[in-house]
Amino acid sequence: MSLRFGILLTVLFLAGCGLGPRHYETYRGEKIPVGKVTPRVLARTGDWYTQNYNSYTPDPAEIARLKTLLQDVRIEIWMGAWCPDSRMHVPAFIKVLDEAGFPRRRLTVYALPRHFKERSDVRKKHIIRVPTFIVYKKDKEVGRIIEYPMETLEKDLVRILEGRYRHELQTDTP
């Protein structure tokens, strides 16, 4: 097997594994991912991810509560790597999940382009602003944080999982 063929197979395999976004767009001279991404992809996008992940300090009492509440939960994050709110809140939210021991296999992150509102997947999910964190328990949506937390990310997530939360920006979601 030639070296070129081996490299081609490796590239095709990695692209098919979902290890990175399907494509990128340029925003203010910066290459940003668009599509299904992982936290690792976001960390390679720029210093913003690592800086905001490392600088966020979740409340230990809320993390302890989350550890018992996150059973049978899956979470989707709809964000824009170009968006200042996404750049601030997404790394912090992922840190909350990491500290609570939430398995990353139950987390899906979608990086949206700047002009995202006409996309069918966005309309179907009622994404009105980014970031939007959608929380599912046993595959039923139980709440969402839209653009910013009402209190803190971890307190809002606890309240969602306890059934005591509705974000002020939430509209007619399922």
Task: Give an account of the 3D structure.
This protein has a single domain (19-161), classed as 3-Layer(aba) Sandwich (Glutaredoxin). It is built from 7 helices and 6 strands, in the order αββαααβαβαββα. Helix content is 40%, strand content 22%. With 174 residues, it is of the alpha+beta class. The protein is globular. The N and C termini lie far apart (52 Å). α5 (84-99) links the parallel β3 (73-79) and β4 (107-111).
Average per-residue pLDDT, rounded, comes to 88
Largest sheet, if any?
6 strands, mixed
Low-confidence stretches: 11-19
Q: Would you tell me which CATH topology applies?
A: Glutaredoxin
- Amino- and carboxy-terminal Cα gap: 52 Å
Secondary-structure element series: HEEHHHEHEHEEH
Structural class: alpha+beta
Label the overall shape: globular
Radius of gyration: 17 Å
Estimate percent helicity. Answer: 40-55%
In CATH terms, what is the architecture?
Answer: 3-Layer(aba) Sandwich
Number of helices: 7
For the biggest β-sheet, the strand order reads: 1-2-4-3-5-6
